[in-house]
Amino acid sequence: MIYKGSCHCGQVVFEAAGSLEKVMECNCSICSKRGSLHWFIPRENFRLLSADDCMSTYTFNKHIIKHRYCPACGCAPFSEGIAPSGNYMVAINARCLDGVDLSSIEVGHFDGRSL
């Protein structure tokens, strides 16, 4: 299935393809403050529909994950990085997907705070 998503103001717009059956809640410092629910997909299943220069990027700690956000509204709809498997992945904040009932999706937990 193809999902559409965006930041709050609509400046950052994207499409993501896949089966949205489970999201991951991480307790690391940034994820817990943002309230992100991550849906991980391969980079080839992600398509940015807005210009790349309409976003800003934040990195911290080991600087291996690019946390992408809208400089206008501050919303952080996705992050990009290399998975432990070596594959390039996108972690979409499922809260930024249009028309998704999050109460029907399984939520897993990841202890990012202890890493």
UniProtKB/TrEMBL annotation:
Annotated GO MF terms: carbon-sulfur lyase activity; metal ion binding
Protein's UniProt keywords contain Zinc: yes
InterPro entries listed in its UniProt record: CENP-V-like (IPR052355), CENP-V/GFA (IPR006913), Mss4-like_sf (IPR011057)
Gene3D superfamilies found in the cross-reference section: 2.170.150.70
Pfam families according to UniProt: GFA
Domain of life: Bacteria
UniProt keyword annotation of Transmembrane helix present: no
Domain CENP-V/GFA residue range list: 3-111
Keywords per UniProt: Metal-binding, Zinc
Family: Belongs to the Gfa family.
PANTHER family, sorted: CENP-V_GFA DOMAIN-CONTAINING PROTEIN (PTHR28620:SF1), CENTROMERE PROTEIN V (PTHR28620)
Protein known as: GFA family protein
Organism whose genome encodes this protein: Thiomonas arsenitoxydans (strain DSM 22701 / CIP 110005 / 3As)
